[in-house]
Write a structure and sequence with these properties.
The chain is built from 6 helices and 7 strands; from the N terminus they run E-H-E-H-E-H-E-H-E-H-E-E-H. It is an alpha/beta fold and about 200 residues long. Bound molecules: glycinamide ribonucleotide.
Length: about 200
């Protein structure tokens, strides 16, 4: 008899939640589990998804805190209640401060819609097309103080099609993200990801 999922993952979101959904759906076959979901946006569709699936879910609304430090303290409390092994940012659209990042150093992951170090920041698909990039994709990396600059764990890439527009490129990269993030957590749970 197996021991069941060994790695507890807390997912932090801001919006739509398709990566959360992919992580959750693939967790049922994998050796990690979703301990719960925290959103800085109380209206995030990702929270509705979490509730429908019976996952512990809560909002920590950044707008009600006077400072970033206070918001991040509350976010950390919400996360610690889930006692996660790993925290996976999945479409979390706020920059995290040094104290928060240090607190979870080495077990705080992010997925970013580009082949880092190319195109950190927002609007990556439009910028990749404007730059004439021939390849594009997604990256899972450790979060550090450097925004979108932490050590890369895994990437999934595709070739940009001639005449491709932002919408199709975004959809194709998103489909890669939905494979890449569960893959990384699966590997992490098996102890196959080495981070420094
Ligand atoms: C995803 O493409 C994710 O990579 C990106 O936001 C989207 C969220 O979609 N994240 C960032 O841009 C982080 N800077 P989802 O809510 O459907 O998972």
């Amino acid at each position: 008899m197996g021991l069941g999922p060994s790695l507890k993952v807390a997912v932090v979101v801001s919006g739509r939640g398709t990566n959360l959904r992919a992580l959750h759906e693939k967790a049922s076959k994998g050796n990690y589990s979703i301990a719960g979901v925290v959103s800085n946006n109380p209206m995030a569709p990702a929270l509705d998804y979490a509730s429908r699936q019976g996952l512990p879910a809560c909002a920590v609304d950044h707008r009600v805190y006077a400072t970033r430090a206070l918001f991040e303290g509350a976010l950390a409390e919400a996360l610690d209640r889930l006692s996660p092994d790993v925290i996976a940012l999945a479409g979390f659209l706020r920059v995290l401060g040094t104290d928060f990042v240090r607190r979870y150093q080495g077990r705080l992951l992010n997925i970013h819609p580009s082949l880092l170090p190319s195109f950190p920041g927002l609007d990556t698909h439009r910028r990749a097309l404007e730059a004439g990039a021939r390849e594009h994709g997604a990256t899972v990396h450790l979060v550090t103080d450097a925004v979108d600059g932490g050590p890369i764990i895994a990437q999934a890439g595709l070739r940009v099609a001639p005449g491709e527009d932002v919408a199709t490129l975004e959809a194709r990269v998103l489909a890669l993200e939905h494979e890449l993030y569960p893959y990384v957590l699966e590997r992490w749970a098996r102890g196959e990801v080495v981070t420094h």
